[in-house]
């Protein structure tokens, strides 16, 4: 599909929704993943300025998550430019992207659409570091799931440890493996995500009881951060779900397939496919897209890739490895793709 055909498809979706469409795709190509973050805001603002204030803006969203406050701020920014705000989800809108959807007056879900719980993880240099499986590899700190930390304490209580002394011991064991400052951040993050979810729902839900019910369910009522909430369950939870008719759904999915192809999201990154028979080559990777009618921004990484031989410690046989150097990495306007 050419750019002109893609723009015609965006126009068609705008006509069917009686809105202006803003596309935000954070690619999850394995090895080249991106996320919802604050660096996109200057470019999203360009699109919103070009769109101007509208009665309704629809955000076409695909993302596996990102920075919680960036998702919250994104909803507030878009709402500055419209009276009504909808989200269209062709496939994945997980974690932080689900939080964005909570701020929408209507959530248009395809048959394949996925939401998830919104319990976040805390990433910090003080986080626990796993043991290295290889002498030459130094792993970094792993994220600490907010609900996993709380779940450990709940498990202790569930097993009958009720006394203050026993709970102090349990907390002490947790503190040995997770830095106390991280535990403090976990507690604050837990409060923050609940506050943000209620705030976003409050933009369009008037019944406080319903806000409490949706927040509790989508925050901790599904037990696992990896749990997938489909369209039927999203309705049962009480979210303002819209089911597109077959013609509208086809447009939604056709547009997604174009972005899926452009970002090669179904193709895991493999240096060998860039190198081929060369020992050194340069790869250009489009990793995320912000788009509206007539304007396109792409998050693009250009890297030099070199095939090298590695002789790991205590292993006499050299193995093939790769040396990669990022030449440039930024959001660029590219109305040619």
What do you see in this structure?
The protein starts with a helix and ends with a strand. With 337 residues, the chain is α/β, with parallel strands linked by helices. The chain is built from eleven helices and ten strands. Helix 5 crosses helix 7 (180-201). The protein folds into two domains: 3-116 and 228-270 and 286-299, 2-enoyl-CoA Hydratase, Chain A, domain 1; 123-187, no CATH class.
Highlighted features:
337 residues, alpha/beta, 2-enoyl-CoA Hydratase, Chain A, domain 1, 2 domains, 8-stranded mixed β-sheet, flat
| CATH fold assignment of the largest domain | 2-enoyl-CoA Hydratase, Chain A, domain 1
Given helix and strand content, the structural type is alpha/beta
The CA-CA distance between the termini, in Å, is 10 Å
- Number of helices, counting only DSSP H or I runs of 4 residues or more: 11
Helix content: 40-55%
| Helix-strand sequence | HEHEHEHEEEHHHHHEHHEEE
Supply Rg: 23 Å
| Total domain count | 2
Number of strands: 10
Q: Which regions contain 5 or more consecutive residues with pLDDT less than 50?
A: 133-137
What's the CATH architecture of the largest domain?
A: Alpha-Beta Complex
- Which range does the strand content fall in? 15-25%
Sum up the overall morphology in one term. Answer: flat
Strand order of the largest sheet: 7-4-3-2-1-8-9-10
The profile of the biggest β sheet is: 8 strands, mixed
What is the name of the CATH class of the largest domain? Alpha Beta
Could you report the average pLDDT, rounded to the nearest whole number? 87
């Amino acid at each position: 599909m050419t750019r002109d055909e893609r723009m015609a498809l965006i126009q068609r979706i705008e006509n069917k929704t009686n809105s202006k469409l803003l596309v935000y795709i954070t690619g999850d190509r394995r090895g080249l993943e991106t996320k919802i973050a604050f660096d996109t805001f200057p470019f999203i603002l360009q699109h919103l300025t070009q769109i101007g204030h509208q009665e309704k803006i629809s955000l076409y969203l695909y993302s596996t998550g990102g920075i919680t406050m960036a998702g919250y701020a994104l909803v507030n920014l878009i709402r500055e430019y419209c009276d009504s705000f909808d989200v269209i989800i062709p496939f994945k809108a997980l974690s932080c992207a689900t939080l964005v959807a909570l701020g929408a007056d209507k959530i248009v879900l395809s048959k394949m659409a996925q939401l998830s719980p919104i319990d976040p993880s805390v990433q910090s240099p003080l986080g626990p570091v796993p043991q290295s499986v290889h002498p030459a590899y130094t792993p970094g700190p792993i994220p600490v799931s907010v609900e996993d930390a709380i779940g450990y304490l709940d498990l202790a209580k569930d097993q009958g440890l009720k006394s203050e002394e026993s709970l102090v011991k349990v907390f002490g064991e947790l503190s040995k493996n997770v830095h106390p400052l991280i535990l403090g951040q976990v507690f604050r993050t837990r409060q923050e995500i609940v506050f943000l979810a209620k705030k976003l729902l409050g933009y369009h839900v008037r019944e406080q009881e319903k806000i409490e019910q949706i927040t509790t369910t989508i925050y901790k009522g599904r037990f696992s951060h990896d749990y997938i909430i489909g369209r039927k369950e999203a309705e049962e939870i009480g979210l303002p779900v819209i089911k597109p008719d077959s013609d509208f759904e086809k447009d939604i999915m056709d547009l997604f397939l174009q972005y899926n192809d452009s970002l090669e999201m179904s193709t895991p990154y493999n240096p060998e496919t860039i190198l081929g028979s060369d020992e050194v080559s340069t790869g250009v990777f489009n990793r995320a897209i912000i788009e509206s009618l007539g304007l396109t921004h792409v998050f693009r990484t250009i890297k030099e890739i070199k095939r090298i031989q590695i002789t790991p410690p205590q292993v006499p046989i050299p193995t093939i490895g790769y040396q990669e150097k990022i030449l440039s990495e930024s959001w660029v306007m590219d109305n040619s793709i």
